[in-house]
Design goal:
This protein has 681 residues and is an alpha+beta fold. It is built from 16 helices and 44 strands. The strands form 12 sheets. It has a 6-stranded antiparallel sheet, with no helix packed on it. Strands 23, 24, 25, 26 and 27 form a 5-stranded antiparallel sheet that branches. A 4-stranded antiparallel sheet has the order 12-13-14-15, with no helix packed on it. It starts with 7 loop residues before the first helix and ends with a strand.
Amino acid sequence: MILAFIPLSKAGKLEKAYTALSVYDYFKAKKLFTSLIKKQNAAAAYGLAIIYRRQDNPFHNIDSAVKYGALAKLFSARQKNSFVFKHFKVDSQSIQTFCDSIAQTILKKLEHCGNPELFENFLRHNTHVQPQLREIAFKLRDDAVTNSIVRLHHSDSTLSYLFQYPQHYAIQDLRRMHEQQVYEEQTGPQTEAAFLNYLNRYPQSSFRAKAEEHLFNLYRTEKDKSGLAGFLAAFPQSQQAPEAWKLLFSLSVKAYTNQELQEFLSTYPAFPYKSDILKEMELNNYTLIPFDMDGLQGYLDSTSRIIIPATYDKVNLFTEGLALVNKGDSVFFINKENTNVFNRFFSDAYEFNSGAAPVMENGKWYLINRQGQAISQTYDEISGLSNGIYVVKQNNLYGALDKYAHVILQPRYSKIGDFKNEMAYFEENGLFGFMDKNGNITKPYYQWISDFNEYGIAIVQKNGSYGLTDNLNHLILPTEFNQIVYAGKNSFIVIKNNKYGYYSGTGCFLSEVIYDFKKEKNADYYTNGYVFRLIKQDEQAFMDSNGRISIDFGVYDDLSFAHDGLIRVKRKNKYGFVNRKLTLIVPYKYDIASDFKDSIAIAKRKDKTCLLNVNGEEIHTTSGEIRYLSKGYYEQITDGTIELLDASGKVLVRDIRKTEVASSGHLLLYLKDASVKVLKP
C-alpha cells in the first residue's frame, strides 16, 4: 500500500526498489533508490541505508549506512511522509530505530578500542541518534581519554587532551593528574635545583607543599645548615618551617654555652623559640626510660639511676622533650626535670608530634603547641596523629586537620579512617570511598575499604564480596572473593569457597585459588612476602614469588620460613632444621623448637630446654624454661628462679623478680632487692 501523500511516479519507483530489495536484488534496488535520493526522498535514503548495512551484498559499508540513515531521518522530518510496502515500513519511528540500532552496533565494536578519536568520529556522524546513545558514547570517549592519559603519563599529552576535551566528565581529576605529572616530571631528579626550579615556576601549584617537604628532607638528610637557612628565608610559611628551625638549631648549637647561644640568636634573629625550647632540647640529650615500682611508674636513665621517682599511675616515653603522664583522673605534660611545663591538667591527651598535641578539656578536644597555646578550634574528638593527619569529629561528622592544625576537610563525613600511606577511607550515606591527604576524594561506592598499604592498594567490599583497588580508583582485582588478607610485600591471600591462593598487587595471580584455607591462622603463617605456604589435605609445600615449588608436598609434616638461613621442619612429631638446599643441619629430635633469631633457637627435648646455634650445637641446656627477651638476652626460669642469660648461656644476673622490655627497647630487670637494672638494647 502506498499512502496518498506519496506522488504516484515516486511510489512506483519505490515499490520497484523495495520489491528488488525484498528479493535481494541489491544492484537494481540501489540504482532505483539512488535515482530517488536527489529528490530528498526519506524512503529512498532508508532503503540505501538498509543495503549498506546488510553484509550479504558487495555494497556493505557501515559508514554509508550511518550517512543514509541520517539523511532518511532528515528527509522524513521535512516531508512528514510515510511509506509501507510488504514488511517494509518507513516513518520517523522506524528510521530512528534503525539509526539507533546501527549506533548501538558501532558502539559495541568500539567499546574496548581505547581510541578517543574513534568515539569522537562516532559523535560527529551520529548527531541524529537518541541522546542516551550519545551519552554512552561521550562516557566511553572520556574513559578512553582517561586511559590514554594514564597510559602515556606525560604532562604534554595530558594538557593536549585537556584542551581537546574540556567537557570531560572528570575534567577536575584530569587537571589534578596533569598537575601531578608536571610535578613528577619537573622534580624527577629529586635534587635541590629541581625542587627550587619547580617552586619558582609553579608557585600556585597544589603540590607546592609536597615540593617544600621534599626540599626540606634533602637538607635534613644532608644536615645542610646553609640549605636550611636558605629554605627558611625563601619559604618562611612552609609547613616544615618549625621543624627546619629546630633542626637548624640542633645542627648549630652543640655545647649550649652562653656564647654559642648568643651567636646563634644573632645569626638567626627570626628564630621563633627562645628560652623554654632551648632548655628542653638540651635535656633531650638524656634518655629516660619508664619503669614500674609497686604499681606506680617513673623514669630511670640508661645507668639505672632513678631520675623521676615512681609517683605516677602511668607514664609514656618522652617525645620532643615532653612526656604525657597520668595521675588520678588527670593527665599532663612533664619535662625531664619532672616539671608540669604548662601548669595545667587535662582529662585526656596524646603525645606531642611535630610540635603539637591533642588535649581534652571540659569534654572538648583541641590542639596545643609547645607553648601550651590552643592552635585549633574545639572538637568532640581528635585522633592521634597518623601519617601527618588528625581525624576530627564534630556533631557526629568527621573531617581532617594536618599536623599544623590546618583544616584539610571540614567535618561532613559519617566516618573517616586514619590516614595511612597517604590515603584514608571515608563513609558517606552508608557507602565507602577514599581520599588523599590533599582532600581529593573518590565517589563512595563500596560497602567497606581497608587501609591502603605502602604500595597504594586497599581491599574493598562490594555486594558482600572482596576485591582490590589502587589509590587512583582502578579496580585491579574484581570483587568476587569471600575474603582477602594483606600478607605484606604487596602480596594478598585471596579466599573463595574455603580455598585460597595468592595475588600480587602488581596485577597478577601468584598461584591458583585451590589450596585449603585455615581461617584460624594469621597472614604471617601463610607467607613472609617472599615464600608462600601451600596447603592441600594437611600437607604443606613452599612456593616462591615466581610460582616455583621450592619444597614439595609430603616432604615434611610442618614447615616454617627461613630464619638465619635455616628452616624449622617437622617429621614424625620431631623438629629439626634444614638449610635452603634442604640439607639437614639439626637432626629431628626436638619436641618443641622456635625459629632462629639472632642466630639462636630455643628447643626442648623431653625435660630439657636448650639454646641452639646455627651449627646445631646445644650451647646451653637447662631443666627449666628459656624465653627470648631481646637481642643477646634470654630469661631462664628454673623452679621459680629467674636468671638472665647471654647468647652463650652464661648467667649475667641472678635474683631477678621480673623482666620487662621497655617501649624504648631497653631491657629492665626488677631485682629481688627492690632495685631496677637497665640494659641497653
